[in-house]
Amino acid sequence: MNKSFKPDVVLKEYWANNERYADFFNAVLFDGKEVIKASQLEERDTEESNVLELGSESESITAARDLFRVIKTAMGVEFALVGIENQYKIHYAMPIRVMNLDAYAYNKQWKNLREKYRNYPGLTEDEYLSHMCKEDRLLPVITVVIYYGEKPWDGARDLHGVLNIPEEIRPFVGNYPMHLVEVINNQLQFKNADNRDLFQLLNLIYNTTLDKKTRIQKAQDYESNHKINEEVIHVLAATNRIQLKTSKREGSKVCTLFEEIARDSRAEGITEGRTEGRVKGITEGKAEATLELLEDYGEIPEELRKIVMGQTDLNILKKWLKAAAKAGSIKEFEKAIGI
Fold first, then answer.
1. Distance separating alpha carbons of residues 188 and 181, to the nearest angstrom
2. CB 291 within 8 Å of CB 308
């Protein structure tokens, strides 16, 4: 039986496991030391709705994260918010997206303080104006982007990287860094077996210095020495757009995955791309990029998702991608493309 996997769905399911989530942030923040425990993580709402106030006018803005957790101490005190953004394609506006997501998270904390102090007695004039007390502190927000692609990330890694700044004023323009982890280029130390298997096998898949036969053999060797979780195999299949052959008796096998990658014309076409499979890959990429931009505004209606993914005209998809980049909401996008 052939099974296909949607990258967004599979990646969210994989990182929904708090053992993996904690291990990832321990690797990123603490060089692999077990500082954060799975029991300290608590899921937070991944959709943020905020009202942007501009003078006498206001506008409601919604942003959707991939994954978001709060870290608590052993005593149950919250001390940090940590989020993961999954990217299997390069997103050239990613520093702006991350900055916005973090800003929404800080604004939500401040909004909670405003509600707390709405009718609070004893505030000084400055505290009343600020909607917070001098001693109040917000939780730090850390967002890490995981890039699963084969090509090295060639986009900006901070806000300055997407701005055209004259050198004379650069020191006065605030910057915002983006924390990026590339699966093919990192030195992270994982203790969780699933995370270790996932990152090592993705590196093996993308190791173009080895021929297909050698990669399949290495995958078989790795599988014979490790008990690989099926969810890891699903992530490998999803990020490589592979339909995986499975059986009830054996389930999914890593070596089968590598054989499918070797056979798949799109894997060949990533760098050479002379076939129809490459054209199909380009149109799918435009459609997915369009949906990814729209996801910043909340949940996409299933009917709209089908329309975008079902479009095969590359010129139309290019126009839709531009419309999604300019739109301020899903409704504006639908209006712009005439739906």
1. 9
2. yes
Contacts for 244 with CB less than 8 Å, ≥ 6 apart: 2, 3, 4, 5, 233, 234, 237, 252, 256, 257, 260
Residue 306 contacts by C-beta under 8 Å, 6 or more apart in sequence?
none
CA 29 – CA 164 distance, rounded (Å)? 31
CA distance 292 to 289: 5
What is the per-residue pLDDT across 76-107, written as a single tens digit (0 to 9) for each?
788 899 999 999 889 999 999 999 999 999 99
> According to the model, what pLDDT value does residue 6 have?
82
Amino acid at 125: E
SS3 label, residue 83: strand
The length of the chain is: 339
Q: How many of the other CB atoms lie within 10 Å of CB of 70? A: 15
Q: Is the pLDDT of residue 286 over 90?
A: no
Phi, psi of 149 (to 5 degrees): -75, 165
| Side chain identity, residue 80 | A
Section 118-127 average pLDDT: 90
What is the enclosing helix (H) or strand (E) of 63? strand 57-64
User: b/e string for 243-255 if b means 16 or more Cβ within 10 A?
Assistant: ebebeeeeebbbb
Range ranked top by mean pLDDT from 98-102, 219-223, 238-242, 264-268 = 98-102
Cα gap 180→199, rounded to integer Å: 15
